[in-house]
Amino acid sequence: MMSSIHFIGVGKMGLPMALHLKAGGHSVTVSDPSPERLTLAVREGLTFGPDTAQAIGVAEVVFSSLPDDAVLRSVAQQVAAAGAKGAVYVDTSTVSQHASADAANACAGAGIEYLRCTVSGNNKMAEAAQLTVMVSGPQATYDRVLPMLKLLGPNHFYLGAGEQARLMKLVVNLLIAQTSAMLAEGLTLGRKGGLDWKDMWSVLCASAVASPILKAKSAQLGERDFTPTFTVPQMLKDLDLILGEGAASQVPLAQTAMTRQLMVAAMAYGEGEEDYATIIKVAERSAGLDSR
Question: Which of 24, 211, 226, 247 is the most exposed place for a label (fewest CB within 10 A)?
Answer without folding.
Answer: 247
